[in-house]
Fold this sequence. Notes:
The chain has 193 residues and is of the alpha/beta class. It contains seven helices and eight strands. It has helices at residues 3-10, 16-21, 77-94, 107-113, 124-135, 151-157, 175-185; strands spanning 26-28, 38-47, 50-58, 64-73, 99-104, 139-144, 165-166, 190-192.
Amino acid sequence: MSRNELVRICRSNSIESYLQDSKDVQYCSRDKPLIQFFKLNTNAAIDGDTDGLGGIIRDSSGKEFAAFSVKLPAEAIHVLEMKAILLGARLAAEKGLTYTLLESDSLTAVNVISEVWTCPWKAIPVLADIRDALFCLNNWKLSHVWREANTAADFLSKPTCCIKRVDIPVVDLPIDLLDIIVADSNGTIYPRL
């Protein structure tokens, strides 16, 4: 895809001026999983004394299946990111989702769980719980995703988010979150900032 085509696609997202000012912009979008798979995106956020965890499970069409948003006391960000993955994996297992793609914008959490990096000592108990939760999912894959392609989970992780947990049917989601879900489902391309 040429730069001009990307500028045309991104105009609707009000990012044209950014694209014109930058010559070496990378782009990303949320990839939809194969038909039999569900995709879980998770995130953690720090905001003063209150931290938040958020996650959303969507089907192959991008339609929301379940979501969560949890507030916690302040803690190390790598532990929070792993706790978000844990809550999401438990939710997927509870829903009986055996084909699940898990994504996090925390490279540290993904590499620790994938045994690429050594687990920080504070996160060892969380890692053990994650392994137990993943055992309940028959077919899963964990991967890193850029923050710009993880905006729904980012929204849910904000300590100001007003939902706690939403199951099927997914109703009463904030309009800003619904806008993000629709943009992701339509394959919106985001510049990597």
